[in-house]
Every structure is written in C-alpha cells, then in structure tokens.
Amino acid sequence: MSTSKSYLPSQKFGGLWKSKKEKDAGAGEAPEVRLDGDEKFEPEHVSETSLDASTGSPPVRRRREAPPLVRDLAPEERARLEKVLVAKIDLHLLPMLIIMYLMNYLDRNNIAAARLAGLEEELNLSGTQYLTAVSILFVGYILMQVPSNLFLNKIGKPALYLPTVMIVWGVISAATAAADSFGGLVAIRFFLGFVEAAYFPGCLFFLSSWYTRKELGFRTAILYSGSLMSGAFSGLITAGITGGLDGKKGLRAWRWLFIIEGVITIVIAIGAYFILPNFPRTTSWLTENERQLGIWRLDEDIGEDDWVGSQEQTFWNGMKLAFADIKMWVLD
Fold it and tell me: Is residue 210 within 8 Å of residue 290, measured between CB atoms?
C-alpha cells in the first residue's frame, strides 16, 4: 500500500515542501523563516519553483511580502498615510499634465482660429483643401499612438519623453507660420499629428504607474478636462492676437498665432523637465516610507511593480500580453 505525504501550507518556505512526518521529527526546533530584503525593499514578483520530484505537485508560487515599513502599519494608519501620499502625487503630477494636455489640444485645433485670422485667404485655400489640412493631422495621430507607447515602455523615462515630444510639437506648431502653400500646410499638419500622438496615451501610461485602478478613472477625467479648457483659452488668445498683432513685422495675425502658441508650448515643456517625476521608486520628493508604500500599493493592486528595467519591457512581450488580455478584445 502506497503512502502519501500530507503537506501544510505553513510549512512551505523558499519553494521547499516539508511533509507532516518530517515536521513531527523536528518538532523541538522552531522553523527558521527568513524574509529576503528586510532592510531594503525590493518588491518580489511572482516566480515558479520546479515540480516536486516525489509527488509531481504543481509549481508553487512564491508569496509576495510587503516591505517592513508597510507591513508593520495598522490599517487605520496605512489608510491615513495613503491618503496623504495620493494628495501629494496629485499636487505634483496633475497640474502640469493638465497644462501640457491643454497645449496639446490647443496646438492641434488652432487652425480653426487661424482660418478666421486670414489663413484661408492668404494661402488661397478652397474649402476642401482647408478641411484636408484639418483632417490630415489625425492620420499621423493614429499611426503614432501605439508605437509611441511601446517606445516609452521600453525606455521607461516619461519625465524625459513627454516634455521632449512637447518641445518637438511646439516647434512644428510654430513652423506652421512659415507655410506658404497648401502642400506645405498639409505636410506640417501631418507631422504635428504624428508627434502630438505621443502625449495622451503616454500620459495614461504615466498615470497608471502612480495610481491604482480605483484612483485612475477620476484622474483621467481630470486630465481630459484640459481639452475642454482649451476652448476658452483659444478664443481669448485669438482675440488678443487678431486685434493687436495683425500686420506687425509684415506678418498676418494667423502667423503670429502659430508662433506665439508654439513658443508658449516650448516654454511649458522646458518647465516640465523640472517638475515631472518618472516612477515612485526613483522620485526624490517622496520620503522612504512614501516610496515603499507607493510601490507596494501598485504591486498589491495589479500584481506588478512599476517599471523596473528595460530588459523586461520588450516589444514582443508587450504585444503578447496585450493580445492575451480579454479586455482588449471586449473593448474593441
């Protein structure tokens, strides 16, 4: 008659299994439990051990452990600290991201204001040509959204990437003032859309590296409000430029419109280099307690830490994960 070993979940340490008989044999000794990284927090990702040779048991997944500073917190204290942490993140991230998105939307749609300021007349555009110049932006926009986020995920530097693409689209937007034909205007608008496409999806990726799923929807809605505010600012800027700068230095008002808004975009992007962080683990304005809590709560929420290295962020791995996610097919 074959005998089988009985296993207790509390007897698993480091991926090794102990039988009940072996437990009884060493009953006089307290099991030694060692948690790697007690002093320095490095979130432990799920890993699989090999099959048990004697039983053929399925792989054992190693249990994640909270960092010491988080593990020792009472639930009420953790809730209080997490509320303070989220408010601090909101203050450092959202104002700049909203302003950047406002300029993203403004530079994309200021061609309508330029039309009123003499663009169509000076370039001798027909109605169809004007609408083509408006629409061509979205061709570049659609083409670049996915590749941009793949690249951002690979380099893992949103605090560098997002302001840089903002400077580039600010330069392109300002260059619209130099357009002197329909073909030139269409080319500029296409590349403007190509570069601007990096911002909004990249911004959502950035926010998801700081907020839990429960918090992300509200922050995305706040971010999207920037596009609505751009309508009010667009009218005010256009009115000021049309009334005071038309004909200055030999340039029509619509050219000044693109120049001024492009320069404003570049200035804001330069400021963003000094304000935006990358990820919780590399942010200097978080205390050690806040850093550990910020990393752990994301790991706890979705089972993954934030971005930790380019070796794990391959294009093919990202594509495989996307196609394996049922939510992508449902949303499509």
Answer: no
